[in-house]
């Protein structure tokens, strides 16, 4: 009898373990589906919107080397700087809108988006002089005078795009928080196709040169923005968008603080890798080194596009679950996304290392450059591996509202440790590109380890309580009750 009882008890324990495994697998599958529903369209949107500038450069390249250099310097220096700030400013909505959705306070999303529009609109005005005085600014940075003058003209012509960015990013976060991203993706794809057609007509057929390229870019970006606005205001979001409200003018100071923290967090990341190329450019005989590292950075950006899709997905999932008071679900979502992104990163690493002698051929036919780029394949692989983890941890930070903490971590790891170590290894110890990149990787690794340790030590119950406080502080129930009476559009 006792043997039978023991046997039955063992069978029962095995059945329970099997049921537990099946439940975990099912939960992981369900969470993975939710994650991919946001990540896949976010990846496509990122690629298509990034490609608008790529298409412009491709058409301008046929006008001449001077024109291509002018457009490239505006895209990479002027727009790269401003666009990073603008995207960071808009990223505050990822925290607040996502948590409001989870809390069921859908009517706050429209108010949050309007607050962000105010902040990004003012930011665009502040940065307008960078576009107007681009020529003297570029000359101060020791750029060629003729290229700077031409870039100055082009930068003035593309000022409308600056204000398109100011409107675009808050709408994107508004839509992502509600997992309504496929329409945004379709609009971006249509705008890109239209952009190709516009450039062909204005630049190639009508021979309007840089002015034609600028007009095409302005129209295409505002097509993206207007398409998204029409989608938002045409009744598809009856709870989240009820018209313009005076409530958007409240709590602007607190909202601005989170927006600035988001911008600083993102810009410190972007500028860090921009500095890598600038540092390499100061080496002796930098031409080959810059070409080689540019090839590697292009591949890194392609891989990063995938990780940024996961970044968008996890920030939405974490903010939604914390706002709904489900801390365990938020943590589980983060774990699933982190494992998925890391696995894809490992696949990219394997492809790079297997093809380390071949991937440079995609970009160049010069044997010296190909050889130099091939030597950097291990550094590229390490960077891609960190990029498969880091953006997910960033997404968790944005979803939970840790922007200030991450910004401080970035300053310490990147600018107090990474850059000085890279400078010593590259310049003092004469290790060149490998030394500079090693220092940068040291900063990235330290930052990733700190963020990962912070993730492991997170009290998710407290984060859910903070999310509830965020919803109350930046537009709680009292404000949401008043918003309908203060609705300007429906008065």
From TrEMBL:
CDD domains assigned to the protein according to its UniProt record, in alphabetical order: MATE_eukaryotic
TM ranges: 116-134, 154-171, 183-203, 215-237, 258-280, 292-314, 335-356, 376-396, 408-429, 435-456
UniProt keyword Cytoplasm present: no
One Gene Ontology cellular component: membrane
Keywords: Membrane, Transmembrane, Transmembrane helix
UniProt-listed Pfam families: MatE
Main location (coarse class): membrane
Family statement: Belongs to the multi antimicrobial extrusion (MATE) (TC 2.A.66.1) family.
Protein name: Protein DETOXIFICATION
């Amino acid at each position: 009898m006792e043997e039978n009882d023991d046997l039955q008890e063992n069978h029962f324990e095995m059945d329970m373990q099997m049921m537990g495994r099946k439940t975990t697998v099912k939960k992981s599958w369900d969470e993975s589906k939710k994650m991919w529903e946001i990540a896949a369209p976010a990846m496509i949107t990122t690629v298509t919107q990034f490609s608008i500038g790529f298409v412009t450069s491709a058409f301008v390249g046929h006008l001449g080397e001077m024109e291509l250099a002018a457009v490239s310097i505006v895209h990479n220096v002027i727009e790269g700087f401003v666009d990073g700030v603008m995207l960071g400013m808009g990223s505050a909505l990822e925290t607040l809108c996502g948590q409001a959705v989870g809390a069921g306070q859908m009517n706050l999303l429209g108010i949050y988006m309007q607050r962000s529009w105010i902040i990004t609109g003012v930011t665009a005005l502040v940065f307008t002089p960078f576009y107007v005085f681009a020529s003297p600014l570029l000359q101060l940075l020791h750029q060629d005078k003729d290229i700077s003058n031409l870039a100055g003209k082009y930068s003035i012509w593309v000022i409308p795009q600056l204000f398109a960015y100011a409107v675009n990013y808050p709408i994107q976060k508004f839509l992502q928080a509600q997992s309504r991203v496929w329409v945004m993706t379709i609009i971006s794809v249509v705008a890109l196709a239209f952009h190709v057609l516009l450039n062909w007509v204005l630049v190639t057929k009508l021979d309007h040169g840089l002015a034609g390229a600028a007009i095409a870019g302005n129209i295409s970006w505002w097509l993206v923005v207007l398409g998204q606005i029409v989608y938002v205001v045409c009744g598809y979001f009856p709870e989240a968008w009820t018209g313009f409200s005076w409530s958007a003018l409240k709590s602007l100071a607190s909202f601005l603080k989170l927006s600035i923290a988001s911008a600083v967090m993102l810009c410190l990341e972007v500028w860090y890798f921009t500095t890598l190329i600038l540092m390499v450019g100061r080496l002796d005989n930098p031409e080959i080194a810059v070409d080689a590292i540019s090839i590697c950075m292009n591949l890194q950006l392609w891989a990063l596009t995938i990780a940024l899709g996961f970044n968008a997905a996890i920030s939405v999932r974490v903010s939604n679950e914390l706002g709904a008071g489900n801390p365990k679900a938020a943590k589980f979502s983060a774990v699933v996304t982190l494992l998925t992104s890391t696995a894809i990163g490992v696949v990219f690493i394997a492809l790079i290392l297997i093809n380390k002698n071949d991937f440079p051929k995609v970009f160049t036919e010069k044997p010296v450059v190909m050889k130099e780029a091939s030597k950097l394949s291990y550094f590229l692989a390490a960077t891609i591996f960190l990029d498969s983890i880091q953006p997910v941890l960033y997404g968790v930070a944005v979803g939970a509202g840790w922007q200030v903490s991450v910004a401080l971590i970035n300053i310490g790891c990147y600018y107090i440790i990474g850059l000085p170590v890279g400078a010593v290894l590259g310049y003092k110890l004469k290790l060149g590109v490998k030394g500079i990149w090693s220092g940068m990787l040291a900063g990235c690794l330290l930052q990733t380890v700190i963020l990962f340790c912070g993730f492991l030590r997170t009290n998710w119950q407290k984060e859910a309580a903070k999310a509830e406080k965020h919803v109350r502080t930046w537009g709680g129930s009292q404000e949401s009750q008043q918003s309908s009476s203060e609705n300007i559009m429906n008065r």
